[in-house]
Amino acid sequence: MNIAVKLGRRTGFLDKPSLEKTALLDHARHTTGLEDFGDPWFERPLEVLLESVAQEARLNPAGELAAEKQFHHVLRDRLLTQWWFARHPEILARPLRRPVVIVGPMRSGTTRLHRLLAADQRFSHMRSFETISPVPRPEFEEVLAGEKEDFRPVLASRIMKVARLANPRTLSIHPTGPYEPEEELGLLVASFWGMKHEAQWHVPSYGRWCESEDATPAYRHMADLLRLIGWSQQVSSIRPWILKTPQHMLDLPALLQVFPDARLIFTHRDPQAIVGSAASLAWNQTIIYSDHVDPKTIGEEWLRKTRLEIERMQAARALIPAERMIDVQYEEMDADWRGTMERVYRFLDLDMAPAVAGMEDFVERSQRLKRRPHRYSLEQFGLTAERVHEELGDYVRRFAVPREGQAAAG
């Protein structure tokens, strides 16, 4: 990919990507013919992210091109979001009552729990193509009328194929497909917010800036995008959403400000597995976009990030009524997913029986998607199990988290 991009630049077929705010905004306006980006709050995280990419990410040629395309995609979608709201004001009137929000560190089993719950048709959930492209194209009304097919799943499939070509390990780390249930991370990316950028590029100053800011505007925009997605799915607005992304560990106050009646499921896993798996995920993504990635730097950063996630989660949940939350252990889910889900359904005050067949189908399908286990070790990233447990031992004791072996797969 890098060779092709370099050749394209030398021959004049490709221009050098522009990662400058004004140029990016102007390009989005020009390609859509629209002007309204919505709440201008997003411009500040965009500025910080662009500066961090320029100063710290050390992108390779393919990485620069991919970054430009990503920024173009997000800005175009912001303009189209406001266009849809103006065209169909009833979208913003859709209620978002009592969502079920899975809150846990990256790689703590949140995806498995999310997909099991998404098998229950009494809930609404996002699909993978919707987190990549949450905003329908202008011709979507023809899709609703049955006159055209939605292009977004096709685009998602192409993006996934490119990602797997760039690094085949992505399939074992996070197995997915265009229609698989997926987290709402892309809805926060719509405000240039969150850890997705940190797991993709080396942008530490951007990450520190986000940690010091109030995320409420990003969560408000996320809620409006959920309304748009629910409308585009043509599903009842009384169906509660199933939500999950590790970002909620850092931003629980903002989430509860926007979703005050949310029911929370906290997932827990041995921190040595969390840190090792998160570092591996970030490593396998970052090396696609940069040729200058230090595994020890990644290990230190995701140990720090995991510690901060846990500290903020514990501080926020101290203010949440006990009847609004439940804790789920990764090891318990591994050993007995049915028994764990029965306990979750008692918490939700729902009969699990109507969902069991869908859950069984997911378990069978997930085995086909995950062709080989995701293997990693702390030593790859300059860490040891002893150090991780020394720094995060309070979390293990507080939530009685079972300890896993030093080498891990998951």
UniProtKB/TrEMBL annotation:
The keyword Transferase applies. Gene3D superfamilies: P-loop containing nucleotide triphosphate hydrolases (3.40.50.300). Pfam families: Sulfotransfer_3. GO terms for molecular function: transferase activity. InterPro entries: P-loop_NTPase, Stf3_sulfotransferase. SUPFAM superfamilies: P-loop containing nucleoside triphosphate hydrolases. Keywords: Transferase. The keyword rRNA-binding does not apply. This is Sulfotransferase.
